[in-house]
Design brief:
By secondary structure, this protein is an alpha/beta fold.
Length: about 900
C-alpha cells in the first residue's frame, strides 16, 4: 500500500485483495521506472565527459574515473532489479540510484574547488528525475531529496574543515535555496502524482472487479436462461402430455354422465341424484375448457398452430356467437349488443381462432360487468385492417396493473378474497391467437367506467361465404387427432367436437341468482345449525345436500355474508371456504373470533392449498379445524359432528359454570345476611343489657327529682326560679336518655316481617338521633319533609337504611374536607306516581361513574382498610327489595351524591 500521506483513504483500503493488487501494481511500476532510471544514469553519466573536456580538462581523467565508477555501481543496481532480492527490497536499493550519481557529482564539485561549479546543476537534474521518472512515494522522495541536500552541505562543511576556505555566502545560500525549493517541488509533485495514480488504480480495480462480476453474472444468467428455457420446454411438454392424459378420463366421465342426464332413456329419475350428476357434468366441462386453453397456449408457444383462413360473414358470425352467450348475459342481468358495419362484407380469417378470441373477450366483459351494465361487440373496417372491439361498463382495470393484463396466469386481484375467479389464461390466449394471425390487440380502461378491447386483424376480402355455423376453436384438429381413420369413429369425432364446443361455451361465471343467497329464517328446534360459506354455487349445493338431513343449513356466498349470518343466527358450526370475495376465510375467522357473540363458534375452513404455511395461517386466524380439497363427504360429516359435539359440551360447561357462579353468589348473599342478622342479634342483646342497666338508675333519678321538686316550696323565694330551671334541665336530659333507650328497645327487639304505619318525620328524627355525634362537627342537616307523611313498612329496617345512608354522607363530607362548615345533608320526602320517596343528598365527594353499578354489591367498598366492610349499601338494597321498592342513585364526582328510597304507596 502507498504511504498514508500520499493517498486519500477509500472504501477499498481494508480490502485484502485490493491491497495485494495495489502492492503488486506498485512493484511492477517501480521495477520499470527503477530500471529506466539506471539506464539514464548509465547513458548520461559517461556522456558528461564532453562537459568535463570543456570545463575541467585538467580533471578529465579523475572525473572519467568517477563517471565509470558511477556507471558500474548503478549497473549493479540495475542487475539487482532482475533478482528476487531486488523485487523484495526495491524501495531500499532504488535510493542508491539517486545517491550514487549525486555522490560522484559532489566529489567533482570538491575537486573543482569552485562553489559556483556548473556541476551543481547536476544535483538539481537528479532531483527533477525523482519526480519525472521515479514518481516515488513520500518517504522515499523525502529521503532522496534530503540525501542530495545533505551531500552538498557536507561538501561545504568539509571544504571549510579541511581547506580552511569558506564558501561565499551569496553563492552558497543561493545554491542551497534552489536545492531546497527543487526538493519541495519534487516532493509536492510526487504526492499529487501518487494520489492521482492511486485514484486511477482504485477506479481501474473497481472497474475490473465489476467487469468480472458482470461477466460472471452474465455467464450465470446465460446458464440460468438455458435452464429456464429447458424448464419451459419441459413444462410445455408436461402441460401437453398431462392435458392429453386428462382428456381421456374426462371424456370417459362426461360421456356416461351425458348419457345418464340427456340419453333417450333418462335412466336417472331421482331429483337429488340428477342434481349431483349435473354438478359433476358442469364441472367436468369447466375442467375440459381449462385443459383446452392450456393446450392451445402450449401449441402457440411451440409454434405448432397453423392459421387456416376461410371466408367468414362477420355479421352472421358475431351474431351467432352473441346468441350463444345471451342466456349467460341475461342470468347476469347484463345487456348485450352487436354492431357490424354493413359495408364490411365477408373476410378471410381463421374461424376457430377468431371464435376463441371473441368468446374469451365476451366472457371477460360479462364477468366484470355488474348487473344492469352493458356489453357491446362491434366490427368495422379500418384501412387495411378489420377492427373488432368489445366494450363493457364494468369495474375497469387499475392503471398500475394494465401492463400485466396480457401476461399468462396473471390476475388483477390475486388475493384470497378476490371477487372474480379465473386462471388468468383468457387474455393471454387472446393475444397469442391474434398475433398468430398477424394482428394486434390493445385496450382502453378506466376504473369505475369500463374497458374496451380492440382486436386488429389483416383485412383480406373473401370471394365466398362459408355456410356452416361457427365451430369450436381447435375442434377440427382435436377431432383429427382422435380419429383413427375408421368410418365407425366418425360419430365419435363429431361427438368430441360437440363436447369441446360445449366446453368452450361453458362460462365459469355464476349468475346473479346464484351469487345472492336469500335471507333465511331457520326453523327453531333441536337440530344444530350449520352455516356454509362458499362463492361456488355448486359447492354450496353439494355441501347443503350432504348436511341438510341432520342439520339446519344456512348459506353465504361471500365472507361478508358469512360474518353477518353468523352474528345473526349464531350457528353451531361454520364451514368456510378459504378463498371468497369481499373477505377471505382468514378474515372471516379473525372477525368472528373478535366478536364476543361469535368468538366460541367452531369454524371449519375448506382450502385447496394443503401446504404447512396455509395450515398454520388458518389455525393462527382462529379456525378450529381445516379440510384440504378434495375431501370425502364422510370426513366432512365426522368433523362437523365432532365440532358441534365439542361446541355443545363447551356451552353446557359454560351454562353449568354460570349456574355455579349464581349459586356461589347466592351463598355469599346468604352469608352476608347471616352476618347482618348475627350483628343485629348481638346488638339486640347488648342493647337489652344496656337498657336494663340504664332503666334502674333512671328510675332512681326520676324518684330523686320528684323528691327534690317537693322541696321547692321550702326554698327562699329568690332561689326557687334557679332551682326550678335546674330541675327542668335535668328532666329534659333524662327525657332524652329515656327516648334513646326506647329507640334502642325498639331496634333491639324488632318484629320480623311486621309491617306498620311509620311517620316519616319520626323515622328521620330517630335516624338523626343515632348519628347526632358524627353530625355535630361535620355537616348541617336540612329537612324538607311533607307534613304528616306516613309510609308502610318495617320501621326498624327502614331506620337501619337511613342510618347507613347518613353514615355514608358524613364520611363523604369529611373526606372532602370542608373547613368552614359548608358540608350539608338534605333529607326530603315526596309522593308521586303512587310511590313514596325519601331522598338523602349530600355535597360530599360523590361517586365515580365506574363505581355506580358496583356499590350495591356485597363487600364492595372504596374506603380504606379498617373503615368499612362494604355491606351497608348491600343491606339497604336487600331491605328495599323486601319492601317491593328500590334505591335510585344519582351522583356527580366531587359535587354530590343522592340516594332516593322508593316504596310502593299503600293505604295506611
Amino acid at each position: 500500500m502507498p504511504d498514508p500521506g500520499t493517498v486519500q483513504p477509500t472504501s477499498l483500503d481494508r480490502d485484502a485483495d485490493f491491497q495485494r493488487a495495489f502492492a503488486e501494481n506498485e512493484r511492477e511500476v517501480r521495477m520499470q521506472t527503477g530500471q529506466l532510471a539506471c539506464l539514464l544514469v548509465v547513458v548520461l553519466m559517461p556522456a558528461g565527459v564532453l562537459l568535463d573536456t570543456m570545463l575541467y580538462p585538467e580533471f578529465l581523467g579523475r572525473f572519467f574515473l568517477y563517471r565509470v565508477a558511477s556507471v558500474v555501481l548503478v549497473s549493479v543496481i540495475w542487475f539487482l532489479h532482475k533478482t528476487e532480492f531486488g523485487r523484495k527490497h526495491y524501495r531500499f536499493i532504488q535510493l542508491f540510484i539517486v545517491y550514487i550519481p549525486c555522490l560522484f557529482m559532489t566529489m567533482m564539485i570538491w575537486d573543482s574547488h569552485r562553489p559556483d561549479s556548473p556541476y551543481y546543476a547536476g544535483l538539481n537534474l537528479v532531483l527533477l528525475a525523482i519526480s519525472a521518472v521515479g514518481h516515488w512515494p513520500l518517504l522515499e522522495t523525502v529521503l532522496s531529496v534530503a540525501g542530495v541536500i545533505m551531500m552538498y552541505l557536507l561538501f561545504a562543511l568539509a571544504r571549510v574543515l579541511f581547506t580552511g576556505v569558506s564558501e561565499p555566502g551569496v553563492t552558497f545560500g543561493s545554491n542551497v535555496y534552489f536545492l531546497v525549493v527543487t526538493g519541495i517541488i519534487v516532493t509536492a509533485g510526487n504526492i499529487m502524482y501518487n494520489r492521482l495514480a492511486f485514484r486511477e488504480f482504485t477506479l481501474r480495480f473497481e472497474l475490473d472487479r465489476n467487469r468480472k462480476r458482470l461477466a460472471d453474472a452474465l455467464t450465470e444468467l446465460e446458464k440460468t436462461n438455458e435452464r429456464l428455457v429447458e424448464l419451459d420446454r419441459v413444462k410445455n411438454r408436461f402441460f401437453a402430455n398431462i392435458s392429453h392424459e386428462l382428456r381421456t378420463p374426462l371424456t370417459l366421465l362426461l360421456s356416461p354422465l351425458e348419457t345418464l342426464l340427456h340419453g333417450p332413456q333418462r335412466s336417472v329419475n331421482d331429483t337429488q341424484v340428477r342434481e349431483w350428476l349435473n354438478t359433476m357434468y358442469v364441472n367436468g366441462l369447466r375442467l375440459l375448457k381449462l385443459i383446452n386453453d392450456l393446450l392451445e397456449l402450449v401449441r402457440l408457444e411451440a409454434g405448432k398452430v397453423d392459421v387456416v383462413r376461410e371466408p367468414i360473414d362477420l355479421e352472421g358470425f358475431l351474431r351467432g356467437l352473441t346468441s350463444e352467450v345471451k342466456q349467460l348475459s341475461q342470468d347476469k342481468r347484463v345487456r348485450l349488443f352487436t354492431l357490424v358495419s354493413p359495408d364490411l362484407g365477408p373476410v378471410m380469417a381463421d374461424r376457430g381462432k377468431l371464435e376463441k378470441i371473441v368468446l374469451n373477450l365476451l366472457f371477460n366483459a360479462i364477468k366484470f360487468t355488474p348487473a344492469g351494465g352493458r356489453v357491446e361487440i362491434s366490427a368495422r373496417r379500418d384501412g387495411d385492417q378489420v377492427l373488432l372491439s368489445v366494450s363493457d361498463t364494468g369495474v375497469g382495470i387499475p392503471r398500475d396493473k394494465q401492463q400485466f393484463i396480457f401476461s399468462r396466469f396473471w390476475q388483477a386481484d390475486s388475493s384470497s378474497s378476490r371477487k372474480y375467479q379465473g386462471a388468468g389464461i383468457g387474455l393471454a390466449l387472446v393475444k397469442e391467437l391474434v398475433e398468430a394471425q398477424g394482428g394486434s390487440v390493445s385496450f382502453e380502461s378506466e376504473v369505475g367506467i369500463g374497458t374496451t378491447f380492440y382486436v386488429r386483424l389483416p383485412f383480406l376480402r373473401a370471394e365466398g361465404i362459408a355456410a356452416e355455423l361457427p365451430r369450436t376453436p381447435g375442434a377440427e384438429e382435436t377431432a383429427k387427432e382422435e380419429k383413427a381413420g375408421a368410418p365407425q369413429q366418425d360419430a365419435t369425432a363429431k361427438w368430441l367436437a360437440d363436447l369441446y364446443r360445449r366446453a368452450e361455451l361453458f362460462p365459469s361465471i355464476p349468475s346473479v341468482r346464484e351469487s345472492v343467497r336469500p335471507s333465511e329464517i331457520p326453523a327453531t328446534g333441536p337440530q344444530p345449525k350449520v352455516l356454509i360459506a362458499d362463492d361456488e354455487p355448486d359447492m354450496l349445493r353439494f355441501l347443503r345436500s350432504q348436511l341438510i338431513g341432520e342439520y339446519v343449513v344456512l348459506e353465504a356466498s361471500d365472507g361478508e355474508q358469512a360474518i353477518s349470518k353468523a352474528v345473526q343466527f349464531l350457528p353451531d358450526v361454520v364451514l368456510c371456504d378459504m378463498m371468497m370475495p369481499e373477505k377471505d376465510g382468514l378474515q372471516v375467522c379473525r372477525e368472528l373470533r373478535q366478536n364476543v357473540v361469535t368468538q366460541s363458534i367452531p369454524i371449519l375452513v375448506l382450502t385447496a392449498r394443503a401446504d404447512e404455511e396455509t395450515k398454520l395461517a388458518v389455525l393462527a386466524a382462529g379456525a378450529s379445524d381445516f379440510l384440504a380439497k378434495p375431501f370425502s363427504t364422510s370426513e366432512v360429516n365426522v368433523r362437523v359432528r365432532n365440532l358441534i359435539r365439542g361446541y355443545r359440551f363447551q356451552r353446557e360447561v359454560a351454562r353449568q359454570n354460570k349456574v355455579l357462579e349464581q349459586t356461589i353468589q347466592q351463598l355469599k348473599d346468604t352469608e352476608t345476611q347471616l352476618v347482618a342478622s348475627e350483628k343485629m342479634a348481638s346488638l339486640g342483646r347488648l342493647s337489652a343489657g344496656i337498657m336494663h342497666e340504664m332503666n334502674n338508675p333512671l328510675n332512681y333519678i326520676k324518684t330523686g327529682l320528684y323528691v327534690l321538686r317537693s322541696k321547692e316550696k321550702a326554698l327562699p323565694e329568690h332561689e326557687r326560679a334557679e332551682f326550678a330551671e335546674t330541675l327542668r334541665d335535668i328532666e329534659e336530659g333524662i327525657g332524652r336518655v329515656q327516648a334513646i333507650v326506647s329507640e334502642l328497645r325498639r331496634f333491639a327487639h324488632p318484629h320480623a316481617g311486621k309491617e306498620e304505619t311509620i311517620d316519616v318525620e319520626s323515622l328521620v328524627t330517630s335516624a338523626l338521633r343515632f348519628v347526632s355525634h358524627e353530625l355535630k362537627n361535620s355537616a348541617k342537616v336540612r329537612l324538607e319533609l311533607l307534613p304528616g307523611h306516613v309510609i308502610a313498612g318495617n320501621r326498624n329496617k327502614l331506620l337501619q337504611v337511613l342510618i347507613n345512608l347518613l353514615h355514608n354522607s358524613v364520611y363523604a363530607i369529611q373526606k372532602k374536607g370542608y373547613s368552614n362548615g359548608e358540608g350539608e345533608i338534605e333529607i326530603a320526602s315526596k309522593v308521586s306516581d303512587n310511590v313514596d320517596r325519601i331522598v338523602v343528598r349530600d355535597n360530599g365527594t360523590g361517586i365515580e361513574p365506574e363505581h355506580l353499578n358496583k356499590i350495591f354489591e356485597p363487600f364492595f367498598t372504596t374506603k380504606d382498610v379498617g373503615e368499612g366492610m362494604g355491606l351497608g349499601l348491600s343491606i339497604c338494597y336487600r331491605i328495599l327489595e323486601e319492601h317491593g321498592g328500590r334505591i335510585v342513585v344519582r351522583s356527580e364526582p366531587g359535587q354530590f351524591a343522592e340516594f332516593t328510597l322508593e316504596l310502593p304507596r299503600k293505604q295506611v
